[in-house]
Amino acid sequence: MEATNKRRTGCLQREKNGTWVARVSVRGRTYARTTATKDLERARQFLAGFVAAVERAHPAEPDPGPLLDEWPRYESSPAAARLTAAGRTNRYRAWRRFSTWMRATHPEVADAAGVTHRMADEYIDFFGRGRASMTQNLCISALRDIFRVLCDAHGVDANPWGCVPARFGDTYARRELSDDEVRRLVAAADAAGGEWPRLFALAVYTGLRLGDCCRLTWESVDLAQGLIQVVPHKTRRYAAGRPVTIPVHAQLMAALVATPPAGRRGFVLPALAEDYARRRWRISKALARIFDGAGIVRSVLYEGRTRLTPRATFHSLRHSFVSFAANAGVPLPVVQSIVGHSSTAMTRHYYHANESALRQAVNAIPSFGTACAGARARPARSARSARPPTVVQRLERANKLLARGLVSEAEHAALRARILADV
Q1: Domain with 192 in it: what CATH number?
Q2: Partner of 128 for a Cys bridge, out of 136, 163, 180, 370, CB 3.0 to 4.6 A?
């Protein structure tokens, strides 16, 4: 396999306005800068300087050591043959990082047979600093699989990674977006123009992922029946190609019928489909501008991490779709069928119950007996007295609680805010 840290000489890509953008890839990461010029010769001069600056900022990696020579044994094994090309590349990167660390800390080890459980523990402590638990666990899984093959090749019984425990407790999924945040996003997408309003309409009213929205074709849309039937790309392999059927929301229908019948061929979003296939970075940059324009913080820095963690992204709209539907009373199995999850457990992972839905669920339980043991049973309320209290009555009760010292000032302010929010 070709080394993943091979450096490119860089390339130029032209924006729609004619401005050239310089792009350089180093060790799997891509760095881009605008040349601020439409002249090709000046853009090439800028690219040469940009490549030199990136090379200075990212010096060559140290020699990975002799353990890297063990990689062909794993690559030719049946375990590696079952992986996709991307999976083998990720395995190679994990093995190269581990081999480089072993050469720096334990240069006496010449092959995989010399790696001990103590060395595996040392490496995972080093690797896990500032990284998420999922990243650390993927590294453990990759090295455990590689050593399973190499230990058999060397005749070693014990896998040094067999007893390395996984790490849990600091995984942060994408959060759902509130009603107000979705409105601001839709307004920002409308301001961006082009195909962005229709893209966000698809995400908000179908819960489809970004790739499925961009690759959606008119053959999957039945406007006469008001249905979208598509096989999600992520579940195409291991869900037997099972399609999902999504009713078309009235707002989405208005956005789709705006395209004349003669133009309903191929992709629903042809420009975004091309960018998703060839220039995905354009979509990422445009989405970042839309989220920033809506005033939504996209990433946060958690304690113990060295990099920002994405929290509000385009995928958050999928979380919002599940939450909106479930909070509106749609059963989770129905939501699961719409979004294409293989189990309701995954749907629950996407479901974020808001306080209003939880309060409504609790208040739906009828009253039984008396408020507390020993209290006198009160006569049944009349139909008129059983009406829910008005906002004024609820505010008066909150003021009485504060006057009696039963709640603090902060609790009283929060209670007033909840009462007024229900108006």
Answers
A1: 1.10.443.10
A2: 136
The set of residues, in sequence order, having a beta carbon less than 8 Å from that of 341 and lying 6+ positions away, is 347, 350
CB 107 within 8 A of CB 63: no
Token digits for 386?
């059983």
Domain around 28: 11-57
Q: Check whether residue 197 and residue 260 sit in a common domain.
A: yes
Same domain as 261, residue 138: no
Cβ-Cβ contacts under 8 Å for 22 (sequence gap 6 or more):
10, 11, 12, 32, 33, 34, 35, 43, 46, 47, 50, 51
Q: Rounded to 5 degrees, what angle do the CA atoms 75, 81, 86 make?
A: 80
Strand partners, 130: 305
Same-domain status, 251 and 269: yes
Residue-wise pLDDT for 378-387, tens only, equals 444 444 444 6
pLDDT for the residue numbered 379 = 47
Q: Is residue 171 assigned to a domain? A: no
The better pLDDT of the pair 371, 331 is held by: 331
pLDDT of residue 173: 72
Residue with tokens 């999922």: 134
Residue 378 lies in a domain: no
pLDDT tens digit sequence for 396-416:
777 777 777 677 777 777 777
Q: Do the domain assignments include residue 231?
A: yes
Q: Averaged over 119-129, what is the pLDDT?
A: 91
Across the range 51-70, mean pLDDT stands at: 82
Rounded Cα gap, residues 343 and 413, in angstroms: 41
Nearest to 83 by CA among 96, 72, 74: 74
Q: What is the pLDDT of residue 342?
A: 67
In total, how many domains does the chain have?
A: 4
**Number of neighbouring beta carbons within 10 Å of residue 252:** 21
Q: Specify the pLDDT at position 3.
A: 38
Residues 108 and 193 in one domain: no
